[in-house]
Amino acid sequence: MTATPQASLNQARAFQALHQAEHGFLLPNAWDGASARIFQAAGFPAIGTTSAGIAYSRGKRDGQSFTRAEMCREVAAIVNTVSVPVNADIEAGYGDSPAEVAHSVTDFIAVGAVGLNLEDATGNLAQPLYTLDDQQRRLAAARTATDASGLPVYLNARTDTYISQFGDSEEERLAETLRRGRAYLSAGADSVFVPLVTDLATIRLLASELGGPVTVMAFPGAPSVATMLDAGATRVSIGQSAMLAALGLTARIARELQDSGTYEAMQASFYGFSEADHLFS
């Protein structure tokens, strides 16, 4: 069931407010309605989607293996399962041109997303990142499309400078991240997302030098969420990590069933039939 315009406005305002909180917040990432409902039941005030988790759950690789329409359906299923604001991972916008990005933004807002992640990764190994000028135009088109919706949709500009290992040194990578981040904020982004940055000194530098909010991603081995927020991050998300943990548990269950036909791994994390029914009641 699609949210009413007033409900969408309330959710968009609530999601904006989370980014203005003094100490920042944690945004868990769901890959289907069940995981989204579990995060909501745990008390999280908002939920993000994970394009990688969604792709894996459908037997596909990460990296825009879905069409715009296919991913919209996945996001809509999550939005319609929860009552908290949802931030949609729209990858690189399902098209190179600003017009295609705007089309994607409009479609994801139409299914109820009140926050969007748009990345600068091209998926092309020969040129892994869009040029700065091209990405600025794409972000400006995204901003125009969010404004046209009449909702204060939060636009998080992801840069893959660290994922793509841009440059020949850490100094070059950091300088490019700052250059891009400032340009993305100037183009209309509300914040800059720099995945793989977990070094606290780097987070502090980005938070102080970018001129806008910085969002980062947590994963096993990273500093605690609280520590990264204390270092200056406005938002910490978890990407596909929870989904990968679920895959790891499923792999252990499969091995035990194959090896001994017993259920210890399954029992250790068993959710329960009645709990599952109650979750969706």
Automatic annotation (TrEMBL):
It comes from the Bacteria. Keywords: Lyase. The keyword Transcription does not apply. This is Isocitrate lyase/phosphoenolpyruvate mutase family protein. GO terms for molecular function: lyase activity. PANTHER family: CARBOXYPHOSPHONOENOLPYRUVATE PHOSPHONOMUTASE-LIKE PROTEIN (AFU_ORTHOLOGUE AFUA_5G07230) (PTHR42905:SF16), PHOSPHOENOLPYRUVATE CARBOXYLASE (PTHR42905). It comes from Deinococcus petrolearius. The keyword Lyase applies. Coiled coil: none annotated.
